Amino acid sequence: QVQLVESGGGLVQPGGSLRLSCAASGFPLDRADIAWFRQAPGKEREGVSCVSAGDGRTYYTDPVKGRFTISSDNAKNTVYLQMNSLKPEDTAVYYCAARPPILLGTVCTLSSPLYWGQGTQVTVSS
Asked: What is the pLDDT of residues 70-82, one digit of tens each?
């Protein structure tokens, strides 16, 4: 059974850091594209970042470029999202999602995830 479990959310001050974890089970991490999404109060869910199956290539959306880093540990079947220089506008529920890659060897995609975690709350506030 496919399962994604997020952890690591919490309350942090502006400028601080958090590391989110997405523990995957039921499929090999190196055969999936793993993505992070977030949904802030009153806003639509938006893509944040993804990491490619196979070669580990990454993609970031503009609001988080230069501040967030996604990485994967295939041995642990876990994907991480390191979030630095956090801003109040980063406050959201963060979701981990998975889908088969469009094509092995290509960059990951944020479109049409098949599986979702339940989310973890990140609050950036002083």
From this structure: 999 989 999 999 9
